[in-house]
Amino acid sequence: MRAPASPPDERRPRGTDRWQFTPAKSWSLAAAVPVALAIAVVVEPEANGPEPIAPIWLDTLAVLTLMAAVLAVGLLVAVEWSGVWIATFSNAGMVLLTALCPVSGHHVSGTYTYVQFAVFGALTAASLLVLIRCRPPAGSRDGSRLVV
Fold first, then answer.
1. Around 31, how many Cα atoms within 13 Å sit in the side-chain half-sphere?
2. Cβ–Cβ < 8 Å for 21, 139
3. Quick one: 104 exposed, middle or buried, by C-beta within 10 A (0-12, 13-18, 19+)?
4. What is d(CA 49, CA 57) in angstroms, rounded to the nearest whole number?
5. 38-58 b/e with 16+ CB inside 10 Å = b?
6. Is the distance from CB of 147 to CB of 137 less than 8 angstroms?
7. Most C-beta atoms within 10 A of its C-beta, which of 51, 82, 114, 132?
8. How confident is the model over 128-140, as pLDDT tens digits?
9. How far apart are CA 77 and CA 3, in angstroms?
C-alpha cells in the first residue's frame, strides 16, 4: 500500500495574503479623521507661547492639511482608494503640525501635545496599514475605485 498523498502546502507566498479594501474599512477611516480632529481641538489650549499669533507659513500649512483631510474624508466615504493616500498624507501633516506648533512659538508644549501626537500618530499608522496591507480594488479601469 502506498502512503496517502500529503495535502498541498496551504501557505501562500509572501505578499498574497493582503486584505481586501472594503467599504467598512474605508468608512471606518473616514469616520476616524474628523474624530481625531475633534479630539485635537478639544485638548488644545489657547495660544500660550511667546508668539501667540501663528506665523503665516504655519497657518498656510494648517489650512492645506485640513483641506486635504476634508478631501480624504469625502473620497473615503465614496470608497475611493485615492482617499487612503490623501488621508495618509493629511494625517502625517497633522503630526508635523503638532511638532511645528511649539517650535514656532505659537504654543508651549504640554500634555495636549502628546495627546495630539498619539491620536494623529495612530491615525497615520492606521492609514499606512491600509495602504500596505490592503489590495487596491479590482474591477475598475484605474484600480482606484471600488465597484460594488
1. 6
2. no
3. middle
4. 17
5. ebbeeebeeeebeeeebeeeb
6. yes
7. 82
8. 999 988 877 665 4
9. 55
Beta strands 19-20 and 134-135 are: parallel
Q: What is the pTM of this model?
A: 0.78
Digit-coded pLDDT (tens) for 74-126: 999 999 999 999 999 999 999 999 999 999 888 888 899 999 999 999 999 99
Contacts of residue 112, Cβ cutoff 8 Å, sequence gap at least 6: 43, 44, 45
HSE of 5, CA atoms in CB hemisphere, 13 A: 3
Greatest CA span in the chain, whole angstroms?
87
End-to-end CA distance of the chain: 52
Question: Do 29 and 81 form a contact (C-beta atoms < 8 A)?
Answer: no
Distance (Å, whole) CA 87 – CA 65 = 10
